[in-house]
Design the sequence.
């Protein structure tokens, strides 16, 4: 558990908003290299690590986690050196002002803060409103546009929250980008665990780009892999916080990973119930806590199941509160239990397994 925490903490320090995933791509290649028979990245940005199985007739399985995170990008710099920005992905607008950010320039990281109007001169009608992102600005302590440029800021510089991870009670962690460093920590842990075992099935560990802006990397990630099935490993929104109606969000932090039936939202998707029942069965047999139900939003499973002639896909997630904020809260136990389910499932994946529905 301690090594899982260390891994997670080091992964959340890597800044890689959608479209600017190179730091996390490099890190994932580095992690998977000693564990896989082959590791490569694609020009599109996906990273693939292959652990070849002992039985070519056993099904091939892809485990996907996304290498991007919600963040921001420099849109413009004004003559006073204030930086105007836009969102990349769906950062919660209410959790941006008054926070520290890190600008990932080619000359190295620059710390800034998102400015906010002094309380003393805020009009009553403004006090309870959040301005649109277009009206927010970052202060890096530069006196002019030229100084900001000289320090490495450019239009297009990616930005992330500058929030370090903290440990709360009960093995809960609060951090920016738990989504989806949790998934990356899971696939690395699974790869470490399976690397020295004779596993029948070939396992593809896939880091996908641009999940947060529309599952873009996953749309092409398994296209030329010899896979019969795919599992997306991600976070999912949890209920049981005072401002969320538990009727609508019943997944609970600390009660086990969520093995999803499907995803609700702008585009409803139902996953492979064959895979879901398989993972639920593994959890039951081994006495590993889990939850199952329908999640809100989309995961890479949505895109992967529509590739080739259709790939059996499902998603499994670590429930977290405060989605897409700098303080996403999840349980390390849920993450650990997720890796346990996947490790045991893959160990038992033999040529007898069929992903067919009838
Ligand atoms: Zn995610």
Sequence:
């Amino acid at each position: 558990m301690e090594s899982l925490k260390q891994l997670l903490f080091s992964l959340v320090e890597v800044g890689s908003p959608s479209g600017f995933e190179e730091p996390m791509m490099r890190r994932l290649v580095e992690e998977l290299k000693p564990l896989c028979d082959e590791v490569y990245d694609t020009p599109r940005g996906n990273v693939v690590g292959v652990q070849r199985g002992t039985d070519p007739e056993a099904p091939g399985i892809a485990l996907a986690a996304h290498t991007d995170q919600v963040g921001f990008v420099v849109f413009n710099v004004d003559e006073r050196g204030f930086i105007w920005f836009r969102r990349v992905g769906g950062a919660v607008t209410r959790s941006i002002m008054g926070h520290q950010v890190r600008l990932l320039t080619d000359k190295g990281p620059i710390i800034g803060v998102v400015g906010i109007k002094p309380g003393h001169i805020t009009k009553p009608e403004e006090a309870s409103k959040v301005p649109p992102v277009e009206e927010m600005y970052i202060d890096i302590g530069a006196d002019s546009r030229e100084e900001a440029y000289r320090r490495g800021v450019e239009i297009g510089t990616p930005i992330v929250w500058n929030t370090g991870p903290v440990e709360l009670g009960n093995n809960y962690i609060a951090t920016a980008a738990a989504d989806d460093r949790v998934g990356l920590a899971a696939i690395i842990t699974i790869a470490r665990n399976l690397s020295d075992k004779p596993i029948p099935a070939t396992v593809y560990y896939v880091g996908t780009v641009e999940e947060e802006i529309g599952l873009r990397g996953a749309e092409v990630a398994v296209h030329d892999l010899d896979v019969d099935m795919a599992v997306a490993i991600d976070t999912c929104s949890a209920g049981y916080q005072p401002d969320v109606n538990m009727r609508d969000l019943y997944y609970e932090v600390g009660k086990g990973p969520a093995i999803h039936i499907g995803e609700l939202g702008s585009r409803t998707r139902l996953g492979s119930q064959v895979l879901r029942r398989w993972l639920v069965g593994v959890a039951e047999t081994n006495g590993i806590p889990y939850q199952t139900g329908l999640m809100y939003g989309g995961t890479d499973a949505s895109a992967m199941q529509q590739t080739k002639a259709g790939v059996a896909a499902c998603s499994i997630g670590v429930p977290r509160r405060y989605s897409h904020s700098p303080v996403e809260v999840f349980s390390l136990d849920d993450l650990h239990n997720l890796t346990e389910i996947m490790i045991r499932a893959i160990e038992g994946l033999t040529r007898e397994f069929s992903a067919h529905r009838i």
Notes: Residues 66, 179-180, 211, 234-235 surround zinc ion (CB under 6 Å). The two ends are 39 Å apart (CA to CA). The chain has a mean pLDDT of 95. The longest helix spans residues 178-194.
